[in-house]
Design a protein that fits this description.
16 strands, 3 domains, Arc Repressor Mutant, subunit A, elongated, nine-stranded mixed β-sheet
Length: about 475
């Protein structure tokens, strides 16, 4: 009988904070600038340059710590992590080892129908490194220091996860929580949320942990899932063959769905940490912590409960809407303006989701205002425009946030409710399609749909379908 194995997973999650400037200098943190344009002597590691701590970084780190039920370290310090690599201009990284900003927290996840607490060992603030760009054509490597010095919070979990499903639930919980705080956009594709997976396997029922490997280069939840499945299988095969798992850092290649060894796994002593001499300790008193705690938003779990109670929208809709702070904000403001939560939810769940998918966008990229959506709902409700026109107008609202009322007036899209004009159109349609008219009179209900469609076409989509249907029935 083959052995049963249990997977043990802990994560290190790096989150780029949404400050306008870097952690120790005033250079821009904006993503996507020309190489080496968001740089200065501090973030390029020039001799004699001195770091100055960005207060907003501390505020964000404290907020994330509090949201994840951590203990905030009253007096935290920075340390130098020494290593030599071309993307690391000072040949050390300013990080926190001995006194990180937050410790001993947890977040609650739901996976496989069960709720579970994932413990957080600690969180620390640090600066990001630069980025190496490998040009295979020229066989050269170039370095871009724009990212060097961008502020990070690293969130280190305990090895409490047992499956890719639990890992995904934990990452989604962290991402939503941090987005709600406004501390980061957590866009994995832009590297503002990066995940390293520490994984080991052991025989089911044993307490002793197996030898772990760390996998880097994971930039999507799907890649994380594939990497976990691939590495779990690789380690089990080694153990089944009587071989040992080597503690090492591995790089996951998502295209090949294969990981390969990068270097043997370092421990803290390999980095020769020592206290950062250019920065004073950060003292976080109760008043500061209380102020940050008072500013924490209503998080997703609380919103879900309130939505079900206050708005009476389906659970599924509430879950999708609250998964993005941007969607939740648009929904709440639209509802406040028009007083129709079910209709606001419907526009977001159906047409907004469809257009996001078509344009390859995330909910955070939405540019239309709740004012425009509320106005569109009002126009449709009052019968000023019919549902077909409403969808056409919404596409323009989505793309360019046009004023729906103005757009409808300028293009003459108002619903034609003039019974005389509609009777005339209906009469012509019956005359032009005697077969469909005869079919309906003979009891074929479906024929009415065809006649309604033809009338709508004749009216350029601007008629009220219910009125057209009534008139057809009358005249037939």
């Amino acid at each position: 009988m083959s052995k049963q194995y249990e997977t043990v997973i802990g994560l290190e999650v790096h989150v780029e904070l949404a400050t306008k400037t870097k952690i120790f200098c005033s250079c821009s943190t904006q993503f996507g600038g020309a190489p080496n344009t968001h740089t200065c002597p501090v973030c390029t590691g020039m001799p004699g340059s001195l770091p100055v701590l960005n207060k907003q970084v501390v505020e964000y780190a404290v907020a994330i710590g509090l949201a994840a039920n951590c203990t905030i370290t009253r007096e935290c310090k920075f340390d130098r992590k020494n290593y030599f690599y071309p993307d690391n201009p000072q040949n050390y990284q300013i990080s926190q080892l001995y006194l990180p900003i937050a410790r001993d927290g947890h977040v609650e996840i739901e996976a496989g129908g069960k709720r579970k607490k994932i413990r957080i060992h600690e969180m620390h603030m640090e600066e990001d490194a630069g980025k190496l760009v490998h040009d295979e054509w020229d066989d050269t490597s170039l370095v871009d220091y724009n990212r060097s010095g961008v502020p990070l919070v690293e969130i280190v979990s305990e090895p409490d996860m047992r499956s890719a499903q639990e890992v995904t639930a934990y990452l989604e919980k962290l991402r939503t929580m941090i987005q709600y705080l406004g501390a980061s956009d957590c866009r994995l594709q832009e590297g503002s949320m990066r995940v390293d997976v520490n994984l080991s396997v052991r025989e089911a029922g044993t307490e002793k942990l197996g030898t772990r490997t760390e996998m880097k280069n994971l930039n999507s939840f799907k890649a994380v899932t594939r990497a976990i499945e691939g590495e779990r299988q690789r380690q089990i095969e080694l153990l089944e063959d009587g071989k040992e798992v080597v503690q090492e850092t591995r790089r996951w290649d998502d295209n090949k769905e294969y990981s390969y060894a990068m270097r043997s796994k370092e421990d803290a002593q390999d980095y020769r940490y020592f206290p950062e001499p250019d920065l004073v300790p950060v003292v976080i008193d109760d008043e500061w912590t209380d102020r940050v705690r008072a500013g924490l938003p209503e998080f997703r779990d609380e919103k879900l409960k309130r939505y079900r109670k206050e708005f009476d929208i389906p659970q599924y809709d509430a879950e999708i809407i609250t998964a993005s702070k941007r969607l939740a904000d648009i929904f709440e403001e639209t509802t406040r303006l028009c007083g129709k939560p079910k209709k606001a939810a419907n526009w977001l769940m159906v047409d907004t989701m469809r257009l996001l998918k078509e344009h390859g966008m995330e909910p955070e990229d939405i540019t239309f205002s709740p004012v425009s959506l509320a106005e569109l709902i009002r126009l449709a409700d009052e019968g000023t425009i019919n549902s077909t026109v409403a969808r056409e107008v919404f596409e323009k609202v989505f793309e360019a946030d046009v004023d729906p009322k103005l757009y409808v007036e300028e293009r003459g899209l108002k619903t034609v409710s003039d019974e005389g004009a509609l009777r005339e159109a209906v009469s012509k349609v019956i005359e032009n399609d005697p077969k469909a008219a005869a079919d309906y009179r003979g009891g074929k209900e479906k024929a009415l749909g065809a006649l309604v469609g033809q009338t709508m076409k004749a009216m350029k989509g601007k008629a009220d379908p219910a009125l057209v249907s009534r008139l057809l029935k009358e005249m037939l």
